[in-house]
Structures are given as structure tokens and as C-alpha cells.
Amino acid sequence: MNSEILEKIKEECRKLPDDISYIVGFVRKRGEPREVLKVLKPDEVDRMSFSPLSFNNPARIVMDLMKSDGKIAVIAKGCDARALKQLEKEEKIERERLYIIGVSCPGVIDYRKFRNAVKFRLPEIESVELVGDEVIVKANGEEQRIPFSEVIFENCLYCEQPTPKDYDVLIGEPREGKLDFSDIEEFEKLDREERWSYWMEVFSKCIRCHACRQVCPLCYCEECLVDPSNLAVSPMTPAEEKAAYPRVLGKTVNASDNMVYHLIRVLHHAGRCAGCGECERACPMELPLLKLERKLKKVVYEVFNYSPDEEIPFLSKLDILPEG
Amino acid sequence: MKVYEGNFLKDVVAKLLDDGYRVYAPVKEKNYHVFKVVENADEVDFDYINTRRSPKDVTFPENEVLMKYGEWVEEIPAQADKTAIVGIRPCDIQGLRLMDRVFLEDITDPYYEAKRKNLLVVGYACNEAGDYCFCTSVGLSPFKSDYADIIVTELGDKQVVEIRSEKGEAVASKFDLSDASDEDVSRKKELEQKVLSSFVRSVNTENLKERMAEAFNSDYWKEVAENCVSCGICTYLCPTCFCFDIFDDGELKGVRIRAWDSCQFPLHTLESSSHNPRREKWQRLRNRFYDKFYYMLVRKGEFYCVGCGRCIAACPVGIDIAEVINNIPSGV
Amino acid sequence: MEFDPKIITFACNWCSYAGADLAGTSRLKYPDNVKIIRVMCSGMVNPGWVLRAFRQGADGVVIAGCHPGDCHYTVGNYYAKKRYILLKELMKFVGFDGERFKLLWASASEGKLFAEEMTAFTQKIKEMGPQEKLRRKIE
User: Fold this and answer.
1) Where are the domains of chain A?
2) A209: nearest CA in chain B?
């Protein structure tokens, strides 16, 4: 029951330590059943909301808030906590300034599936409750029951840690995750040309809005390898140097160039990806970007035998190379 | 007002394909529709509220090659085939009109002009407002458009065909159209009433110019942009966002390309002196709202938002242009 | 006309480049399809460069560095290997011909090995034919 979870979250937020200046939590969006992230003051706890439609990852906002002073409390699901942990390993956030209210997460709803499944107009919906295996949507005095399996965000089925590992308080009973790469193994069985034409079709839809990069809590580079400008622009940079700056990729939009962009982006997430699925959720063209991320996760597990729980970041660990 | 027994849109696609047109029509892809070049009238699916991407790439493609260079420089002339877009919604037709005002009014863009001149626009009136639609708030109508060549209204068993230009007349004359009966007219009126009552979202445009002028320096924009991630979804899907960037792809041999750009990207306004006038994301996000509802209102006299609701539906963090405009604080 | 492949080799300054040099001074022959780009260490080769090379029309890409344990910068070649495995796995996953991408350990004394490996790799690429999958589309 997510209303119970919400009550517990509120209760925990009311008895937070005094030195907390911000709470990064969810509030309900006006005119829609979903929640959006919001930076709240400790006296605004009553505005908070939580449901299986609280799918965004707060790690990005937490990282932004680290620039200001004060301690931050954050509501984190399993994947959010993994992203926070990774950012902590990379020294982007200070754990001492963070108070994690962990939520044991049964999975979130895929908002696109939900919009198709629900029979009400969005502004009419009063509440969305997850009870057992059913999502109960209430509107206009009526209710609609949707099986959770029909609207669950697909990536949540493969979650290896639905319960945060690192938290200050935990809400809900801990859940077991599992390591499951069956979808990737299934895909690998296709032969090479089938895989190529599958990805070409996928990437021909990409419009290069770079939303996958921007929503990703781990894509925090100030300037990206594929950005059109030159990294080292300053008033003193001569025109020749600007022109000669090596550019991996311009803003050319076609299937193979889009693929190069996505491969480069995904490669930077090897052993880091928290698997929150923000990239896939954000993509306006609904590309299966997590498939690439999960493939790399599989390589990291199987070839390098590295688990993201380890304290040393994957890229700085060198004793895990296979022989030869 | 004429009536066609059957599916006029589908038949017009087939006819135009026969006549050698390049036809853009809505095609269903997985869970959404997009305008695509079709080769066969059977690919087309008209069961949609609006397409995921706006059809602006018909006249303003995401990549436009302007020049090739290598041993010689070869300029690519502006030219276009006979093109038609079938099934475009009235909000997107307004989008097209607003784009015309940008690319053809003061300075004529030859690439855009060539494509626009050869374009036949067959509109499709809405039978239902989507959850994110608010075109009535920005002065548009979900079933009227004087800017299309032909506009079609679905009545279920037949379609009402309204011809708005000579170009449209030339195409429509090839079809067996009968005059609309009084019953058809009243059925259409009824439908329009039904559509108008199905809107659930609105924007308060009362005194908007003054309200926005007043609120420019408000902290409100920082609050709005709190969870913005500076991606390009809103601008790339918008039917009236026209910013572009020109760059060269290739060193000694390559092409000069005009590509879409977005005011939400930090590099969009980065000057070569390394000064960036819109450095913070709240400044960039504010720019988008002001562009749609203030700057263009001052410069061109109308809103540059057509109320299609694409940016609201696709925003990954739930920023809602209608809410943002409605909640602009006063007296700051 | 016989297919004349373009092969880009990123060779590290301390081992492989010197190895290639040795192959030259020892008058060993290897195909001129191989274009060497000298880098300070195989560990500095960004996977983006490899993809860029393929995009610019390379038919094969080789990263050549010191043997494990011999790196001038102690561990650079370990990073290279890590990146190589990740990129190659990903390439195979998306259906790109992973065989076109190769990692080679060649020390400064292994001129013969360098020449042989390059000859074999060129031969393989010749059999595979031109690389069209990632080549730049607008030209």
C-alpha cells in the first residue's frame, strides 16, 4: 500500500535531525496522477506524495544541491540509492551530508503503459494505489483495477536490489532482488545481421535530443564528447585551434551516427550504471536503451567478475582483467 | 462544404502517390504515431490524437546539407519534390504557419521556401481532445484552419471535405464529392461541440504580456527549473521551435550541415569569448517560456505556442508549460 | 580492382611504435594499408576515437601497446584492455563486425611479430571486404 508508505515517509521526515536543510522528495503533479521531484524545506512535509508513479531518480538533484550548504534528506528507492552510492564513490556527493530515507521498492509503473491502460482522463484521477498485485486507480467515484504486471516498468523486473543497501532509515520490508540477464541472452541468440538490422531500425528513430544523456545521474560531464562546441574555448583560443579540435561526432542524425553516439554514451557507464532506467523512460521515441546498458552490466559481471557494490570504482580496478 | 462517402484521407494518399507526390502521413510505430514518407496507402493509420513528433521536419529537416567541400566547393541548391502532408492536425497547421512567418517573412530562407512552395497540406480536424491539448487557450480551434489546402472532418461513415485553396481544389476535383446536406452540417456542429467540451487543460492568457514582463526577474523561474535536466525534448518535439546550428562535418572533405539546435543546451548561447548569457538552466528554461508567450508576441503579434501539448506529455521530469504560465506570480 | 583496405593502428610510443620502427629498419615487409597513429600510451586511446575511425571509413582498427606489465606508465595497457573488451563486446552485441577491431601486444623488440600480425590482419580485412556499417552516410 503506497499510502501507508507515504505516511511512514512523512513520519520519518517530521523527525529528521535538526541540521537538515532540504528534503528531496516527490510531490504530486497538478492535473496528472504522476509525481515529480521537488526540493522541499523541512516544514513542507505535508506536500509530499508517493506512489508507484514516483519514478524519477533524485540523484541528479542531490548532486546539484551539494553545491549549496546544508544537509540533504532524500527519498530513495533501490535504484536511486545505487546511483547515489556510485556518485559517492566518484566523490560527487558527500555521504555525511546526506540522510537517505530508503524505500523498499516493488517496482514502478511505466507511465506510458499506464496512460494506455487507464480508462479515465488524466486530470480526473484522484489516486493510484498499489495493493498486492493490482493497481487501483480511483476517479469520479469509480475505480479501475489494473494488474501490476501489465503496467510495471520492464526494467524493474530485472532489478537486482529493490531495497537500498545503504540507508539511514528503511521503510517497508526488505525485498530480494535477482541477477537476471535472460532478455540479453535471448537477444544474443539472434545472428549478427539480425541484430544489426534491429539496432539500425531502433537508431533510425533517434532524434538526438540528448535527453538520455541529460536525465542520467551518471552523465554529469560539463561538456560531452559529442557536443558541437570545442572543449577548450577561451578568449585566447585562436580560430585555428578551434577548427582543428578533434570532433568525434557532429549533430548528424542518421542511424549509424546515432549508434556511434549511443555506443560512446553507454561505454562510459560500464560498471557504473545504476539501472534506474531514466534514459529509457525519458526517450521520446521509446528506444530500448537499457538493453545496451544491461549488456555492459552483463559483461562487467561475467568477464570482469565485478559487482557494483564494491567500494573501488570499476574503472580504477585493474586486478579483474581476464587472462591473456 | 463537400462530403465524401468513405475514407477521403486514405484515398487521397493513394491518389497523391499515383500522381508522383512524396507523401508524409501518420504511421503507427510501436506505441505512437509519427509522420513518415509512405509508399503505400495501407501503411497509414489515422487513428490518433496527435503524432509524437511534430511534422516540422517536412519543411525544416533535422539535417539539411547546404554545401559539400573537398577539392572543390559544391553548393547544394534549394530544391524540393512535389510533397504532400496528409492528416496534419489544426495545431500543427498553425505551427507550419508560424514557421512560415519565421523563414519567409523578413528574410527568405531558400531551402525552406523550396520545400514550402511544393507542399500540399491536407488537414484532419480533431474528434477528441487529448489529455495534454490546450489549443483553444491560444486562440486556435481543433477543427478549423484557414491555412490548410484541404481540411477533412471525420463523421464516422463519411468525411466532410472543406477546400481552402486552389491547390486543394485541384486535388479535390479528382474525387467524387457531393454537397453536404443539412444533416451533415448539423452532425459536424454537434461533433465540434463535443470536441470543445472534451478539453481538460487550459492556459490563462489574460494580460499575459504584462504578467510576463513583470515576472521576468522573479525567483519563480528558478523554482520551475529546479528539476529541469536541460534536455532537448521540448524544443525538438515543438512544432514552432526553429533554432538551428550550422557546422561542418569532416576535415579536409566533408559537408556543411544545418541541424536543429535547442535553447535548452548550454552550448547554444556560448560565445567564443567563453561568455554565456544563459549560463544557468533556469535562464534557459525561462527563455523557452518567454519565447513562446512573450518575445514572439512582441515581435510577431501572436503566441508561438500552438497548444499541442507534446512538450508536456514527453517531459521526463514533468514540467508543464500550461501550469508554468498559469502560475506566473504577479506583483514581483 | 582489388579491395584496398584502410587500417588504422594506434601504436604506443614506447613499445609498439618502436616495434613498427624495428620492422622497418629490419626491412621486414608489411602492407601499406596500415596507417599508424602514434599515441603516448595505448591507455589513452578513447573508444570514441575507434568509433570515429570506423565512421571516417576505416576498414579495421588496431590498438597496439606494450605487453602486460611492461607499460611505461605502469598500468596504461590494462586500461586499454578493459576498454577494448567492453567496446568489442558492445560492437558484437549491436551486430557490428567485431573482428575488425583488434588489440595487439607488441614490444619494441618484436618487429617481426608486428609485421606478421599486420600482414595477417590486413589479409583478414581483405577477405571481409569494405566496412560500410558505421561509415559516414552524408558525403
Assistant:
1) 181-324
2) B232
